[in-house]
Specification:
The chain is mostly helical. The protein has helices spanning 3-33, 38-63, 76-103, 106-126, 134-151, 164-186, 194-216, 223-250, 254-260, 263-275, 282-302.
């Protein structure tokens, strides 16, 4: 497989993940509005998503065993890397669902996905992976303006609507954790197949959420519609989406990977306006456009285009 085909497939995997996650935002709001607590929905998502990933892992292992790719062959640091990525995955989804509970599907999704590339870029500079330059500075300025337009309430910053501040805090927390997931997948041990790393990470995420859900009480889906929605979040937006994203993220730069998932907030916002009568204001669309412009600057910089 040549480099161009590999890159095209990698982008396809990342875009597929973004589309599935964007639709999942509306399903999550439907379930949360139906009485399922965000932490319980997170647990259901990971628990229902694990079986498919482990089955794919066992099938791949039977067909083409990979030498020195089992858990016992990893160093302590690599094992910690896998577990840490899974924990970040759990926190990302939990914060995202909590933001949706306060603000609806569209805005938390836009904040979480659009702010993550900026965090990735900043971490890359602070860690010495990339130099600081005019293109990065321009991207950060555009992004800051976009974020301010996105999060500004319609009535201004006077008396905030109930739960608005908490919803923003959860959404930005989701963005930070999503950035950690991206960085974790990009730096996953190369000898570990994507499906294996995804199965391990998903298991770690499920265990984290099991502890949180047990401590706070578990709310279960009721009726066919809720169980169907929970199954969708587990299989489509977790097993399939995370596997597609993990495979693509390994073959793209971290910044490019998160930029590819910018399709997620667009899908979520469009579906929220179409089905839930939750349109974003023109000011918020302008903010999203500024964020997209910032991401393009970062991608061009990442490719070495001056």
């Amino acid at each position: 497989m040549n480099a161009r085909t590999t890159a095209a497939l990698a982008w396809g995997g990342v875009l597929l993940a973004g589309v599935l996650w964007g639709g999942g935002a509306l399903v999550a709001q439907f379930l949360i509005d139906g009485g399922i607590a965000p932490h319980s929905l997170s647990l259901a998502r990971f628990a229902l998503g694990m079986p498919l990933l482990w089955w794919l892992h066992w099938q791949a292992t039977r067909r083409a065993p990979v030498a020195h790719a089992e858990w016992r062959h990893l160093t302590r640091r690599e094992q910690g890397h896998v577990v840490g990525t899974g924990a970040a995955m759990a926190l990302n989804v939990s914060c995202w669902f909590a933001g949706i509970a306060h603000l609806g599907a569209a805005l938390p999704t836009v904040i979480s996905i659009c702010c993550a590339p900026l965090i990735v870029a900043c971490v890359s500079v602070l860690r010495g992976y990339e130099p600081f330059g005019a293109r990065l500075l321009g991207g950060l300025v555009l992004a800051l303006a976009g974020v301010l337009l996105l999060v500004m309430p319609a009535a201004g910053w006077g008396a905030l609507p109930t739960g608005y501040g908490a919803g923003l805090a959860w959404s930005f927390g989701s963005a930070v954790c999503y950035a950690l997931v991206v960085l974790g997948n990009a730096r996953m041990p190369a000898r570990v197949p994507a499906v294996t790393a995804s199965a391990w990470g998903m298991s770690a995420a499920a265990l984290c959420m099991l502890g949180v859900a047990v401590a706070n009480g578990i709310t279960w889906p009721e009726g066919t519609a809720q169980w169907t929605g929970a199954a969708y979040t587990g299989v489509a937006t977790t097993s399939v989406a995370y596997l597609a994203f993990a495979w693509g993220a390994r073959r793209l730069s971290p910044t490019a990977a998160v930029v590819g998932t910018l399709i997620e907030p667009l899908v979520a916002a469009w579906l929220a306006a179409l089905w839930l009568a939750q349109p974003m204001a023109p000011r918020q669309w302008l903010g999203a456009a500024l964020l997209a412009g910032a991401m393009l600057l970062l991608v061009r910089r990442n490719r070495g285009i001056v």
